[in-house]
Amino acid sequence: xxxxxxxxxxxxxxxxxxxxxxxxxxxxxxxxxxxxxxxxxxxxxxxxxxxxxxxxxxxxxxxxxxx
Length: 67
Fold this sequence. Notes:
This protein is of the alpha+beta class. The protein is built from 2 helices and 4 strands, in the order ββββαα. The chain has helices spanning 41-46, 55-66, and strands spanning 2-3, 6-7, 24-29, 32-37. It has a two-stranded antiparallel ribbon with strand order 1-2. A two-stranded antiparallel sheet has the order 3-4. A hairpin with a 2-residue loop joins β3 and β4.
């Protein structure tokens, strides 16, 4: 998920501001663009797309963490 100038992994929730070496890949799930960090790619490839959260789910998690 992208918000302002920050990329957030739609699997683990890692933010691009938390790790300067993080690399994110843009993908599509259910017609929605999502971002996945390379550390989570194996869980998507060898597991299932079910681990990928929607952008609204990630936004909700970010709001909960801020409160």
